[in-house]
Amino acid sequence: MAASPSCISLVVLVALATVASAQLSPTFYSASCPGALAAIKSGVTAAVSSDPRMGASLLRLHFHDCFVQGCDASVLLSGNEQNAGPNAGSLRGFGVIDSIKAQVEAVCKQTVSCADILAVAARDSVVALGGPSWTVLLGRRDSTGANAGLANSDLPGPGSSRAQLEAAFLKKGLDTVDMVALSGAHTIGQAQCGTFRSRIYGGDTNINAAYAASLRANCPRSGGNGNLAPLDTMTPNTFDNAYYTDLLSQKGLMHSDQVLFHNDTTDNTVRNFASSAAAFSSAFATAMIKMGNIAPLTGVQGQIRLSCSKVNS
Predict the structure, then answer these.
(1) Is pLDDT above 60 for 38?
(2) Known active-site residue 255
(3) Is the separation of the CB atoms in 271 and 119 below 8 Å?
(4) 62, 64, 255, 262: which one is catalytic?
(5) Strand boundaries in 51-129, DSSP class E
(6) pLDDT tens digits for range 167-184
């Protein structure tokens, strides 16, 4: 029986995706811009040193980039995805990326993509805050457009259930262990009151009562949407496995955090990461490499933007 056109196109798409990720290489800029990685690291280290929260913000930028039409720096284009629900008023770090891009451009004109800068900056942010390192594959190119609709549909929100999280990550080729490990990025950074208000005012029962009370002090029933609380109660400026220890104590800040430990299929993975920092670090690094391989533009696809916030004229 002949294969249907849809089956054939799926095979072609999978083959193209495999070829694209195969074209990425850790040594992509070794000859064309040998100073690129050092320039990015220097910029990230300085930014995180002056504002530790920036490490989480840069990591989040990479995640929000990759989950919307692949790791192509579409999230950096002014407007569009930046105005989507999951991003508006909460994404940070654009100025840091622009500064790093300017430094890299001064060394190597129109050679290093904004997408690659984001991927490297995410890794360097984790390292700057005491977390694991990994080898970043390079060679992504930048998109010439962005997609706010996809940002609204494909980025999991703070109210997501465990099943919804799994589905969102599986759609991007990331399995359940990847999902639990990448959620551990919440071991750094802060979240706005509006993302966890319903959880602390009776919306969830799986929350430590004293913890909920402490959060209500800075997150009123109305107003104060932008008031911040640390995602990790113990070491919010250190990349470690304390996030999972919080989950064991029902101290996940957002609903989408605590669902990972709530008499469900992900409980054992959470216990494993809580008890072994090495297991978490290894799984996180593996998942970050996989996420960085989501649908990259390579070869002659896309462009190398001169400015990360706009397409080349």
Answers:
(1) yes
(2) no
(3) no
(4) 64
(5) none
(6) 999 999 999 999 999 999
Res 308 pLDDT > 70: yes
For helices 114-128 and 94-107, angle between their N-to-C axes, nearest 10 degrees: 110
- Report CA-CA distances (Å) from 82 to 79, 92, 146, 182: 5, 10, 9, 22
The contacts of residue 181 (CB under 8 Å, 6+ apart) are: 273, 280, 283, 284, 286, 287
Q: Rounded to the nearest 10 degrees, how much is the dihedral formed by the CA atoms of 4, 9, 10, 11? A: 90
Helices and strands per DSSP (H, E), number in the chain: 14, 2
Contact 282, 289 (CB under 8 A): no
Separation between Cα atoms, residue 149 and residue 104, nearest integer Å = 31
> What is the DSSP secondary structure assignment for residue 35, as one 8-state letter?
T
Tell me the per-residue pLDDT of 253-307, one tens digit each, with 9 for 90 and over.
Answer: 999 999 999 999 999 999 999 999 999 999 999 999 999 999 999 999 999 999 9
Q: In whole angstroms, give the CA distance from residue 34 to residue 173.
A: 31
- Distance, CA of 260 to CA of 257 (rounded, Å): 6
Token pair 């599986």 is found at: 170
Q: What distances in angstroms separate CA 225 from CA 53, 88, 221, one per listed residue? A: 18, 13, 9
Best CA proximity match to 247, nearest among 238, 235, 260, 234: 260
Buried b (16+ CB within 10 A) or exposed e, 6-16: eeeeeeeeeee
- Using CB atoms within 10 A of its CB, is residue 214 exposed (0-12), middle (13-18) or buried (19+)? middle
Residue labelled with tokens 């990025």: 185
Separation of CA 189 from chain center: 12
Residue 6: predicted pLDDT: 47
Evaluate whether 239 touches 130 at the Cβ level (below 8 Å): yes
